[in-house]
Amino acid sequence: MFPECIFRCKTLEVLKLTLTFWQITCDPPTSGSFPSLKFLHVSVSEPDQEVMQKLFSCCPVLEGLTMDGTIDGDSRNGKYSFMISAPELKTLRIDLENIWEFLDVSIDAPKLENLDLKRLGLTNCFLMGSAKSLVNANIAFREYFKIVGQLDLSNFAMALLDQVSDVKSLSLSAHYLEVSIFHLLFVYNTFGSE
Which residue ranges run through the membrane (predicted)? Predict the structure, then answer.
């Protein structure tokens, strides 16, 4: 367990953590944690869902969050879920490999301006009002159709694109997903002028 003084440090503005399933976990206090933390980079390898939930909910002035690594094997029901709740968050970068389990990421960040999502495969992202403030979105989908068989992964992509329809700048990468993703852009006239 990390010492509680790290969570209560008033001068800490930038923190990089590595969380793995075999390492000691962190257990932040429910209130008063990271009072000055503005930038957090978390590298994960099959972390505990509860630890992730607590960590992302205890940074009241966090402006930038980067999360990368691997999420597989921790869930008890075939789905790994966590919520990022940060009222001041402006930039969110998620680059997670999740091949075998579904991942639900709920994002409650009303001031979110920049969203960078990479290696999205079996991932549902729920922006929970965060999309209204978005200016830039960079989304890179993965090609999992060969791994998971008959599952139509374009539904994940289409659901996310529906949520970022008001963004000013969009960069998409979808090497092997069906054309229906791009068809969505034209059918709904999402990014065209009206």
Answer: none
